[in-house]
Amino acid sequence: VRTVHREFAMPLWEEHAVARYEAHILPFYDMTVRPHYEEKILPLYQQHVQPVVDQHVLPAVDKHVLPVYNGKLVPFYERHIATFPSLAKKHSAVASERIMEILSKTHFVIVSHVKALGEKAFRMMLKLNEMSIEKELPVGVPSFLIDLCDFVAVYAGTTVEIAYWALATIFFAFFYRTIIRLVFSIGLLPLRLALFALMVPFRVGWFFCPMRFFFKSSVKTENVSSTEKSSAGQPKLETTHPKKHKKQISAKIENGSKAPRLQ
């Protein structure tokens, strides 16, 4: 994962994402977003929102949020989460040793079975070849089969490794898209975590900012108005209760039975 991240993900990120950010997003921000923010949004914030934040929000944070954060969250982090990397490293080392031990034992068992099968097949091929020579048959056992069984019997470990690589190639041929997507997602995971950690202070600040309530209410009103417009253009469907529908059907049947018959 580190090799893929260093050799593939980081060059692609620097060549495409960073270059496009510097070429398109930064000039747009400097020319459009920042002047609009400094001319319109910042004066409104300083005039209406900042007094509310200074008089109500910050004292409430200092009185209620910071004591909980310093009294409970920070000790919990220092007691449990801060020691997690060392514990994870220790347990991962033990787990990796155990996994390597299991894999080595499994590999040894597979190689021993393959060697036994190769020796058995080699003896069988020699016996069949001798029988064909004794009976003077025109066709005997092909020499490449005898050589193949001899190779499997002598080089069982190499045969198992070739089988591993063949299975890996077939698996990659069938699921190469999923594997490439998974590798790139794992390679970009540190970048995503870094962006998430970078955006945490802004998210916390936005959570305590009173302006988010105004933005949410405007979005809700726009959604409600759009749904009302879409529903106004569609015809209303008449819905009848199932009991009323049954009564209507029974009344129609009774009226049909009471109608006079023509002779």
What descriptive keywords fit this protein?
disordered C terminus, elongated, 263 residues, mainly alpha, single chain
In terms of topology, how is this protein built?
Elements: H1 2-81, H2 84-134, H3 143-154, H4 156-187, H5 189-207, H6 211-232, H7 242-258
Helix pairs in contact: 1-4, 2-3, 2-4, 3-4
Task: Explain how this protein is built.
The protein is mainly α. The protein has 7 helices and no strands. The chain has helices spanning 2-81, 84-134, 143-154, 156-187, 189-207, 211-232, 242-258. Helix 1 packs across helix 4 (156-187), helix 2 (84-134) packs antiparallel against helix 3 (143-154) and helix 2 runs antiparallel to helix 4. The chain starts with a helix and ends in a 5-residue tail after the last helix. Residues 218-222 and 257-263 have low confidence and may be disordered.
Distance between the termini: 92 Å
Q: How much of the residues is beta strand, in percent?
A: under 5%
* Global morphology: elongated
Characterize the main sheet: none
Number of strands: 0
Instruction: Give the helix proportion (percent range).
Output: over 70%
How many helical stretches? 7
Order of helices and strands: HHHHHHH
Radius of gyration in whole Å, from Cα? Answer: 38 Å
**Could you say which structural class the secondary elements and strand pairing correspond to?**
mainly alpha
Mean pLDDT: 76
Low-confidence stretches: 218-222, 257-263
